[in-house]
């Protein structure tokens, strides 16, 4: 059981305005943002562990557009015993490029626990450490089996195993 400190710290496009509700949701559902993850970011409880996972991915993808708002979402949907400090979640990370759900176990409206296996693709425009001028962007994938639990009707991210 390992925690993955790199996910949540996500990134978005700095200097952009509030997410456009009509654009496609970053989670890749094919819905627009308003009809998908926006309602969870604005306070509605995610009905399933997968919906929560998608909304947390979207929050990471949009983080740079409103770090305080999206970091607060990541923080309140993260189990109290495993979550980082709120201030650690606002730091910019890589640019998230796409999400693919591989598998889900339980995590439905009648479950109290669930897991979601996913692959998230990212690009780190700053290049590898140590930073070098003109370094090529680094692309990578995060493959994680995440565990979730439902508490007072709200799904929470607990931890995950990277593979
Ligand atoms: Zn979405």
From the 3D structure, determine the CATH topology.
Answer: Nuclear Transport Factor 2, Chain: A
Strand residue content: 25-35%
* Main sheet makeup: 4 strands, antiparallel
Q: What low-confidence regions span 5 or more consecutive residues with pLDDT below 50? A: 1-16
Strand order of the largest sheet: 1-2-3-4
Mean pLDDT level: 87
What's the architecture in CATH terms?
Roll
Protein name: SEC-C motif-containing protein
Pfam family, one: YchJ_M-like
Domain YchJ-like middle NTF2-like: 48-160
Region (Disordered): 1-23
Attribute tags:
disordered N terminus; 3 helices; YchJ-like_M; 4 strands; 4-stranded antiparallel sheet; 17% helix; binds zinc ion; 29% strand; SEC-C motif-containing protein; 163 residues; NTF2-like_dom_sf; Nuclear Transport Factor 2, Chain: A; alpha+beta
Write structural notes for this entry.
The protein is an alpha+beta fold and 163 residues long. Helix content is 17%, strand content 29%. The protein is built from three helices and four strands. A four-stranded antiparallel sheet has the order 1-2-3-4, with helices on one face. α2 runs antiparallel to α3. The radius of gyration is 15 Å and the shape is globular. The N and C termini lie close together (11 Å). The N terminus is likely disordered. Bound molecules: zinc ion.
How are the elements arranged and paired?
Layout (H helix, E strand, L loop, with lengths): L37 H4 L7 H14 L4 H10 L18 E12 L6 E12 L13 E14 L2 E9 L1
Antiparallel strand pairs: 1-2, 2-3, 3-4
Helix pairs in contact: 2-3
The site of zinc ion (ZN) has 7 residues, from helix 2.
């Amino acid at each position: 059981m390992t925690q993955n400190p790199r996910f949540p710290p996500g990134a978005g496009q700095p200097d952009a305005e509030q997410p456009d509700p009509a654009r496609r949701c970053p989670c890749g559902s094919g819905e627009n943002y308003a009809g998908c993850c926006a309602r969870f970011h604005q306070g509605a409880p995610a009905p399933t562990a997968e919906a929560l996972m998608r909304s947390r991915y979207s929050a990471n993808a949009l983080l740079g557009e409103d770090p305080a708002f999206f970091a607060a979402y990541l923080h309140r949907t993260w189990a109290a015993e495993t979550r980082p400090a709120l201030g650690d979640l606002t730091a910019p990370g890589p640019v998230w490029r796409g999400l693919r759900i591989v598998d889900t176990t339980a995590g439905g409206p009648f479950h109290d626990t669930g897991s979601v296996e996913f692959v998230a693709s990212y690009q780190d425009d700053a290049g590898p450490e140590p930073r070098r001028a003109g370094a090529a962007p680094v692309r990578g994938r995060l493959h994680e089996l995440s565990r979730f639990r439902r508490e007072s009707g709200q799904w929470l991210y607990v931890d995950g195993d990277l593979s």
